[in-house]
Amino acid sequence: MSRVVLVTGGSRGIGLACARAFEAQGDRVAITYRNKPVDDLFSLRCDQTNGDEVDAAFGAIEDRWGPVEVLVANAGITNDTLLLRMGEDAWREVIDTNLTGAYRVAKRAAAKMVRARAGRLVFVSSVNAVMGAPGQANYAASKAGLIGLARALAKELGSRNITSNVVMPGFIRTDMTAALPVEWQQMAVDGVPLGRAGEPEDVAGVVTFLASPAAAYITGAVVPVDGGFGMGH
Ligand code: NDP
Fold it and tell me: Which of 7, 91, 104, 196 has the most CB atoms around it within 10 Å of its CB?
């Protein structure tokens, strides 16, 4: 395969593992980042809270390789605190990055996919979208929103041969989870039937599957990658 793939937030963690997995299949892979590019990947600085930067990143990919054929909307942040201490800034920052950012990149990608009558959209949500987690009202809401977004797009775009699916990772070993207190990390793993944290590659395997020809008849699906934590939810 030599499709044009964009992985947002592909500079580290789950996004980087996805980028490497597509690259290994022979796809042409671009990533977006905010702080640090990846030297051997086509890296575009793009803060997805800014629509102009999103547009410029897609434009640069189109100039080099043509339209994006597979979009992995992976970039995301946390800003955890309990509801009663959560100011509107923390709420807005997480919703704007995780949910509105995904809307921005999906809209930009879909415009060309509709014309091509083909495309794959994969959104990286979280098991906390459906399980909830204390201190993550903003994050859980943003990640639950991605499920609604993906399913609306599955129905809007299905007739154009564009699939729109969601992966729902559980506790995955990345910088995001390394920032949590060690006791919390242990508690998270204790709740996992498979008895270990996930690795970014565990998620990348499902993302590449959903973008593959084998998944041509799957759309609107929400696929957990959580070691059994959510028991299929
Ligand atoms: P990391 O914190 O390791 O990486 C996040 C990536 O997103 C980085 O590349 C970062 O860029 C990028 N990013 C953040 N904000 C923006 C922005 N405004 N515009 C563009 N890029 C941005 O996270 P993970 O790899 O752990 O997580 C990846 C995705 O998976 C996230 O959406 C996360 O919510 C989700 N997830 C993670 C889980 C886990 O256990 N790790 C569990 C469930 C879901 P930069 O490096 O420049 O900051």
Answer: 7
